[in-house]
Amino acid sequence: MWPESGTPVLRFTFGKFKEVSAIGNRHSYMVDTTAENLWNKKISHAAFAVYLSDKSKVRIADAWITVNDVGPGQAVKFQTTFDASGAPASLQIVATTMPEGLGPPPKPRLISITVNSVPQGASIKVDGADAGTTPKVIEVGVGKHILEFSKQGFNTGHFPMEISGNDVSGGSVSYELGTSAYDTIELRDGSVLTGDVESMSATEVVVRLAGALQHLNRNQVKRIALVERDSPAQ
Q1: Residue 232 located in a structural domain
Q2: Do residue 158 and residue 141 come from a single domain?
Q3: Any idea what DSSP says for residue 228?
Q4: For 194, phi and psi rounded to 5 degrees?
Q5: Torsion sign over Cα 162, 163, 165, 171
Q6: What is the pTM of this model?
Q7: Last residue of some domain: 97, 132, 155?
Q8: How far is CA 61 from the centre of its chain?
Q9: CATH number of domain containing 148
Q10: For every one of its 234 residues, what pLDDT tens digit does the chain have, with 9 covering 90 and above?
Q11: Domain boundary at 64, 97, 130, which?
């Protein structure tokens, strides 16, 4: 039966192995074979490899079978020839071309798109799955998708996108992140800190970074950009 598990589609019946020639340990066999369609659909074309093994499970022969235009419940008879290097003890059938409707589903069509952000370096998620950082070329299938952008110091953004069956690769998406969620402190050495400015004086700037207070010398600071915050409740 094929397949060996699940609902059978074809029944192969092999008759007696008739030896037609022998040279040394090489033996040629002719076998009367029947293939019966057990499926409820017509099999337009199917191809199979037939492997013979000896008692030690060593493969000693290969043959190929094709089944064409066999309706439900119909059977076809033919002969199969084996050129074996030993005495056959077992037989295995492996599908090389499965009947239409039984093969694996076609791979989904993917579209390549360049995704960028302003500023660059934002992390991307496509439908909730990490996809790298901008700029990045991603591949998405036909349908609706959600791109999520996140970057430390900026509000997270979401971009809905729909790919149609007529779209082609090579498009691009650019997303501008929202205003910074934190104050920005630019230092004279060129580095930039993002956090919450707690206090400023003539000699010191106190910043909360990742939950911890950091005290900066006033002369270290070149520029401070403060975000608008809601007034605390009275």
Answers
A1: no
A2: yes
A3: P
A4: -125, 125
A5: positive
A6: 0.46
A7: 97
A8: 37
A9: 2.60.40.1120
A10: 998 888 899 999 999 999 999 888 889 999 999 999 999 999 999 999 999 999 999 999 999 999 999 999 999 999 999 999 988 999 999 999 888 777 666 678 899 999 998 888 889 999 999 999 999 999 999 899 999 998 877 778 899 999 988 888 888 999 888 766 678 888 999 887 888 899 999 999 999 888 889 999 999 999 888 877 766 565
A11: 97
**165 within domain boundaries:** yes
CA dist 144 and 127 (Å) reads 9
In terms of domains, do 137 and 77 share one? no
Range of the domain at 207: 183-225
